[in-house]
């Protein structure tokens, strides 16, 4: 097995349980709060938004949760996903480090998002829900949910951030192929959207605004629920299939990671890869450094405050304790649309506060430079979001070149960039800039964050 390139699992080797990190943390994460009373949110508070099974997963302290058989059946369309050894990138960088990447671009939607879209739709279908509403930034989540709804016969209505609706028309086409109905956000469909459009007819939108629109449509109808593609505990839970598979795959070649890096938008692909490894680390079985990588233009963990804030711009969602730049913060229109979110998964924020993981921010030019190196050596064109993880892996590999250390680096290549070529085009033509962020902008957005002791 000396010259293997990818490590595969058979279908019957696919894990059949998701892993819940809450069971193994030294301190429980702070609870979500009701947006009005600021008391810990109850199951009834979540009920207009999510089916009961997902509300239960959201607050569960069980270590393992069985993946339903119907979900495993759909997973088998693309899972187990391959783990690659990036030998060609290692050679290009002339590094003694070993680089592994878990490739999630093999899913129908081209990213890790279907790992949670499929179970979310299935649980809704079990509870008789007719339609799901959601938001999408880059279009990855919207297409994943539309695909999953098509699998189980639910309707799907999607609010796509206006800037990306215009920039990524092909993502919209994918959503429509799978039967989704797509609005640009802000839209004239909701009251909140109409208000924002009256203020600015060319409003670029944001994930926070699109969430407000999708939520407001779901809470008005008993047969409609909302689905979120990141941030929440149950989403990170579903994504742990990534890390569970990667553990088995690395074991096949006798490797354990010294460094694990993942890009963080809302934190789901990072949590999905990292939490099973964090379990092993907490149990003393390995000791990888685990690092979140975020964009410099939306530096939630590295520059945000750890406070209770809303998940959406209008303040409709429960309050979550997380690193936040302020729910009114509109990030610069960087190309990694999936990383343009003002907050962070409460579980990722919690493990960061506990000092169990690190975080760095990387500017987009460095990310695209790394992505082009990656594509020219490994072949796959990465989505703009995981270029952050690639840039961080390259930094680490080059540090190994300096020091001579033979570290094992693991990352997730959480999506391909076939529908993001306009971004690459800008980069290749030298038209891309780094969008730095003024501290004043963050300060201003933080003023609207509720004061909660
Ligand atoms: C949505 C998305 C992200 C950001 O979401 P996380 O919850 O942080 O994973 C990153 N990469 C890709 C390819 C995405 O589609």
The count of β-strands is: 15
**Percentage of residues in strands:** 15-25%
Strand order in the sheet with the most strands: 1-4-5-15-10-11-14
Bound ligands, each once:
pyridoxal-5'-phosphate
How large is the count of helical segments?
Answer: 18
Distance from N terminus to C terminus (CA atoms, Å) equals 56 Å
Explain how this protein is built.
This protein is α/β, with parallel strands linked by helices. It has a domain at 67-110 and 234-448: Rossmann fold. The protein contains 18 helices and 15 strands. The protein has helices at 43-46, 52-59, 69-75, 87-93, 114-126, 140-152, 162-167, 169-177, 191-199, 207-218, 233-252, 268-282, 300-303, 346-353, 364-378, 387-403, 421-428, 439-446; strands at 6-7, 17-19, 64-66, 83-85, 98-103, 131-136, 155-161, 181-185, 224-226, 259-263, 289-295, 305-310, 319-324, 358-362, 408-413. A 7-stranded mixed β-sheet has the order 1-4-5-15-10-11-14, sandwiched between helices. Strands 8-7-6-9 form a 4-stranded parallel β-sheet, sandwiched between helices. Helix 3 (69-75) packs antiparallel against helix 5 (114-126). The longest helix has 20 residues, at 233-252. 58% of the residues are buried. The model has no long low-confidence stretch (mean pLDDT 95). The protein binds pyridoxal-5'-phosphate. Pyridoxal-5'-phosphate binds at residues 111, 113, 140-141, 230, 263-270, 338-339, 383, 385-386, 414-415.
């Amino acid at each position: 097995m000396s010259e293997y390139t990818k490590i595969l699992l058979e279908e019957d080797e696919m894990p059949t349980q998701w892993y819940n990190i809450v069971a193994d943390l030294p301190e429980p994460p702070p609870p979500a709060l009701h947006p009005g009373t600021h008391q810990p949110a109850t199951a009834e508070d979540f009920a207009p938004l999510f089916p009961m099974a997902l509300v239960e997963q959201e607050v569960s302290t069980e270590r393992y949760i069985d993946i339903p058989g119907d979900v495993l059946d759909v997973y088998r369309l693309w899972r187990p996903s391959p783990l690659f050894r990036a030998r060609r990138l290692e050679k290009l960088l002339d590094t003694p480090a070993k680089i592994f990447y878990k490739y999630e671009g093999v899913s129908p939607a081209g990213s890790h998002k279907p790992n949670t879209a499929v179970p979310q739709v299935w649980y809704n279908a079990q509870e008789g829900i007719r339609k799901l509403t959601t938001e999408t930034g880059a279009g990855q989540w919207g297409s994943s949910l539309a695909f999953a709804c098509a699998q189980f016969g639910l309707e799907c209505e999607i609010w796509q951030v206006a800037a990306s609706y215009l920039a990524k028309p092909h993502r919209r086409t994918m959503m429509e192929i799978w039967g989704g109905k797509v609005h640009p956000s802000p839209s004239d469909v909701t009251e909140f959207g109409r208000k924002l459009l009256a203020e600015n007819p060319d409003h670029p939108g944001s994930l926070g605004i699109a969430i407000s629109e999708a939520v407001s449509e779901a809470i008005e109808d008993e047969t409609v629920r909302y689905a979120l593609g990141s941030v929440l505990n149950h989403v990170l839970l579903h994504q742990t299939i990534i890390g569970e598979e990667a553990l088995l795959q690395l074991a096949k070649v006798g490797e354990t990671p010294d460094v694990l890096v993942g890009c963080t938008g809302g934190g789901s692909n990072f949590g999905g890869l990292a939490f099973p490894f964090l379990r092993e680390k907490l149990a003393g079985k390995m000791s990888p450094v685990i690092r979140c990588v975020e964009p410099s233009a939306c530096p939630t963990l590295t520059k945000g405050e750890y406070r209770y804030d809303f998940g959406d711009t209008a303040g409709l969602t429960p309050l979550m304790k997380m690193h936040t730049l302020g729910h009114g913060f509109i990030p610069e229109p960087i190309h990694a649309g999936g990383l343009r979110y003002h907050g962070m998964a409460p579980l990722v924020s919690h493990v960061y506060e506990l000092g169990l993981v690190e975080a760095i921010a990387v500017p987009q030019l460095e990310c695209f430079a790394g992505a082009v190196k990656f594509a020219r050596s490994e072949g796959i064109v990465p989505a703009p979001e995981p270029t952050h993880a690639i840039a961080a892996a390259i930094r680490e590999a080059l540090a190994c070149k300096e020091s001579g250390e033979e570290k094992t680096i693991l990352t997730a290549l959480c999506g391909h960039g076939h529908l993001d070529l306009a971004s690459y085009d800008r980069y290749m033509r030298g038209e891309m800039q780094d969008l730095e962020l003024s501290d004043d902008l963050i300060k201003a957005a933080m003023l609207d964050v509720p004061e909660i002791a």
